[in-house]
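Students often ask why we bother encoding 3D structure as a string. The short answer is that it lets us treat folding as translation between two languages. Here is a chain of 245 residues written in the first language.
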Amino acid sequence: MTMAAELNGSIAVAKQAYDELMGLTTMHDLGAQRFGTGPKRDRVESLLETLNTHVGAIQLALSQQVAESGEAPIISIPVSHRAFYNDVVRPHGTSLQKAFIHICGLGMLAGIFDDRDGGKTRAARLDAMRVGLQRWMDGLGDDELFDLSDRGLNLEGALEILDMPWFEPDQWARNFAQLQPVLLDRRPEVMNEHVRHRLMEIYRAFAFGLWMSAIALSRSLVEFSIKQNAGRLGIEVDFEAEPFP
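And here it is in the second language, the structure alphabet:
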């Protein structure tokens, strides 16, 4: 199953559950933890469980598409699914997941949604690379080390790279997790190839912490898009400068 198909499936289920949920309660009541009683509460809990599962699946699918795909960060989905994502999942997804945690009696865990990057000081990936490589090297005999070196493997150099201050795989992973693809209600091919290529460069610059590059590329893309659509949008891009006195 393709990424778009999985995403559409999760959005369809979440939309159905949300529509039924809003027939039973409101976002205000959910935020105030007023879930009702009896059969109503049971149904609200069941719908919130469904939403919790599929909101998480939607968010995971979007972040994976950016991090794992070598193509432009664009996914084509139906108009209604795109509207549901923009109007409900993005602004209220976390609130719905928190409501599920509370209705289950696990409110003490709701803070996990407020600390998405709670591992800012952790370097789990980097430490794993360093420990794994060092232990491998420590277990090799002199002949094996010489053979690997003769084959072109620079293990000491690899360790040096891991100790470079700019080598931050854990931060890169956190940056990737913040990115989401552009959702179109048309085929991605309708987007100018130049734009798709620039989007890839912008996302990668952001993911690897090249902030000024991401800003400059974003500005360049905005300028290009304005010029390309100026006529349709009624924007004047050319003007005659007044001569100096």
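Translate back mentally: The mean pLDDT is 86. Keep this in mind for the problem set.
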